[in-house]
Amino acid sequence: MKLELRGITKRFGSLVANDDISLTVEPGEVHCLLGENGAGKSTLMNVLYGLSAADAGEIVVDDEPVAFSGPADAMAAGIGMVHQHFMLVPVFTVAENVMLGAEPTRGAGLLDVEATRARIREISEQYGFDVDPDAVVEHLPVGVQQRVEIIKALVRDARVLILDEPTAVLTPQETDELMGIMRQLTADGTSIVFITHKLREVRAIADRITVMRLGRVVGQAHPESTESELASLMVGRPVSLVVDAGTSDPAEVVLAVRGLTVVDDRDQLVVDDVSFDVRAGEILVVAGVQGNGQTELTEALLGLGGRVRGSVRLAGTELLGRSVREVLRAGVGFVPEDRRTDGLVGQFTVAENLVLDLYDRSPFARGPMLRHARIRSNAAERVGEFDIRAGSIDTLASTLSGGNQQKVVLARELSRPLKLLVATQPTRGLDVGSIEFVHRRIIAERDNRTPVLIVSTELDEASALADRILVMYRGSVVGIVPGDTERDVLGLMTAGYAPEQAFERAAAHPTRTGHPEYGGDGDEGEP
Amino acid sequence: MFTVLGLGALVLFGLLAPGGERSTFGISTAGDIVEIDPLGVPSRQAAILLALLCLAVAGYAFLLTARAEPVPLWLSVLFGTAFVLSFLTWAVAGETISLTGALQGSLALSVPLIFGALCGMLGERTGVINIAIEGQLLAGAFLSGVVASLLGNLWVGLIAAPLAGLLVAYLLAVFSIRYLVNQIIVGVVLNVLVLGLTNFLYGRLLSPQAGTWNSPGRFPRWKIPVLGDIPVIGPVLFDQTVIVYCMYLAVIVVHVALFHTRWGLRVRAVGEHPEAADTAGIAVNAVRFRNVLIGGAVAGFGGAYFTLGAIGVFSREMTAGAGFIALAAMILGRWKPMGAVFAALLFGFANNLQSVLGIIGSPIPSEFMLMAPYVLTIFAVAGLVGRIRPPAANGQPYIKS
Ligand SMILES: Nc1ncnc2c1ncn2[C@@H]1O[C@H](COP(=O)(O)OP(=O)(O)OP(=O)(O)O)[C@@H](O)[C@H]1O
Ligand SMILES: [Mg+2]
């Protein structure tokens, strides 16, 4: 199926999110959309999928102009979409989610679950998915949830599949598997529109690349272009992909974690006797495949949830057993993993979100009263500094693009005096330019003699920032290694190999570059 | 998956109840409980036996939780029944009550609760909280009474009842879905509006000219052959008015529709994750609008039970909070029709007990018995809700971008 967008324009108030955009997706190709945060990629895809109506322009399918009044029309025309934030009902089973909106029935509106199960099995077989139709979606790992989304589209015979930042939440191994699936799909003639900020992936899979900036198409790029060529085309200036971390000068131990153990709601031991130090002026990166206890570790530091034992001392004072507010007051900056639920209040404005944990203190409050002028001037400053692309500081946070929501959280946490910075996946969903900026800020914080603890599943990020890297596997510390440790070794450690073994194995079997054995023990029931 | 709250609630459920039990058989005295065919039960032993059953159920529930398995509904029902029976055995020790009579009374009080709970469920499953059930019941009671009285035809009155509920629901839907006014506030306002309106009309018309305006009469009871002759169950369940038979039907229809049809799947998706439903091509607000209207009609129909089913005349504020208890029944029943039925029966039973025990003069002060259903409600809403998950998008308006 050939798909054309002609002159699509979409405005939100005075903001032009899509400005006269035209592009063509040929049958069986992977068409990459590249662009900064807020460039308008998701907006364009929402128009294409019938979720929002364009102010001008037309969509042409196989040379026939079509008009979509809702996603149902788009699906009928053969367009499927996997959203940046998954659109699955958590309490439904896989089968229920898959059939929703296009339910097979046995007359009288009675659901025919068996037919859906059969379809799911059929598709799973064809593409090598391992998906149980009767599993409840909320219990599935994200990688599998994404497969459910893809099945949802395939069941409706999608000939064009839109994938909006599908790899942002995947482990490298899951990403590789997704790439494999994409190749199979295109081999069957399905076209794919692929949005990502990871240039490595673009180079690996794209047949055609369209670059967007500030709501416009600024050009096409060749799939053979280098990553830095792509980056500068996207941002409009040269970008350094690896920030020069300079030299660090770690001093005294400020954060001392001893025997930290966390048991979750399901009585699972999720953090098992973890001990480490972070020094002033040092960045410690906690690496590992997602779901090995990193999230729970940071939440325990902050005083959130779970049953926690052990000790966490910040400059000699015990933090465990204190409330979140007290911990924040003690000077801990925290960037949570899920910005949408833990980092922002969607129905508050950007300005309000920028003072979310500072609102009750000088200079933003006088007694019980908020000082709105200060809050606004603060917001204007932060928005400029962090290049947050929002219509205005009064825009609701929920309408920001994914990357810009992340920037709001970062701007808030990084712009007050800190005694400790804890950041989980600080650059998830950010474009390369913003990653460069955020990395610089984190390094500046380090040079300011703040101890920094970063949780990242991106080995590139770990290598770029870390003075030391702590690798976690199944809740325990596999080892703590220097920041310049080779990727291969790190990859093996994230799969549970102790450092010495990992060094040996990596020396004996150097892996193909870019495909380290990352979490390769099939832990999550993947094929 | 069980949340911390769930665990807490179960500990409460498991530990508090046995505590209550011990006091029960502690106070029990020897005596007989007599039923239609005088079926004497040594009250002490019976109470102890039932209490042990309660304990066993609680223990099993605890075990299930420990194994991180959900506690099935029937277990809660069994617990509730055993608890109540044990309590009853103790309370009527040495006296005689008619079991059939007690159950009939309970069902009578439960009918509007069940209709109300179905109404609430239809709304909340799509994410719209309906506080106006009380108003819808009252409107149904009023209009059915007046219409039946004016036209001298009960059936026309019965048709008018859902229309009254529908009208109230329409207002709720328009304001809360289309104009995004807070759902709770609209609901409260509607309750006050219906109450005021019916009171006014009652004072002006129904009371002074009761002959024309307020003498609808009642539906006769229809005994179902064979089924109606079963002892105890027969007269309780199968010798009822058409409204009660419709209720049986409504419960079954709603259950099947919610969990086994395309319509139900869409309804539940809208209540759990409206964006997901939207991207699957479902018109979220249309589904919500429609369901609030259907719910209103159901509640309105249930309102007719007050006038045409039970009393035979309309009286001021005759719903007396049933709409709110219905909400509690819905929550206790975990937004499921069958669950709501059992919760409503429990409430109806407790409410009925108060009058029965008042008559026979039981050891418990009648003030306490008056409180009982409400204490039960608070327990239901506060204690047991923790492990029940309401529809995720409940109460949140959906604004399309
Ligand atoms: N509903 C809305 N109301 C107002 N503004 C909106 C709305 N949705 C999107 N925008 C704005 O449109 C612009 C483009 O957003 P979009 O989500 O398309 O960006 P994106 O290219 O997908 O970015 P990212 O890479 O961060 O996901 C942003 O400035 C955003 O704030
Ligand atoms: Mg986006």
UniProtKB/TrEMBL annotation, chain A:
Residues 505-527 are annotated as: Disordered. Residues 3-239, 255-499 form the ABC transporter domain. This is ABC transporter ATP-binding protein. Keywords: ATP-binding, Cell membrane, Membrane, Nucleotide-binding, Repeat, Translocase, Transport. One of its GO terms (cellular component) is plasma membrane. It is found in: Cell membrane. It holds the Pfam family ABC_tran. It is a peripheral membrane protein. GO terms for molecular function: ATP binding; ATP hydrolysis activity. CDD domains: ABC_Carb_Monos_I, ABC_Carb_Monos_II. It comes from Haloechinothrix aidingensis.
UniProtKB/TrEMBL annotation, chain B:
GO terms for cellular component: plasma membrane. It is found in: Cell membrane. The chain crosses the membrane at residues 46-66, 73-93, 99-121, 128-148, 154-177, 184-202, 242-259, 292-312, 318-335, 342-362, 368-386. It comes from Haloechinothrix aidingensis. CDD domains: TM_PBP1_transp_TpRbsC_like. This is ABC transporter permease. PANTHER family: GUANOSINE ABC TRANSPORTER PERMEASE PROTEIN NUPQ (PTHR43370:SF1), SUGAR ABC TRANSPORTER INTEGRAL MEMBRANE PROTEIN-RELATED (PTHR43370). It is a multi-pass membrane protein. GO terms for molecular function: transmembrane transporter activity. InterPro entries: ABC_transp_permease. Keywords: Cell membrane, Membrane, Transmembrane, Transmembrane helix.
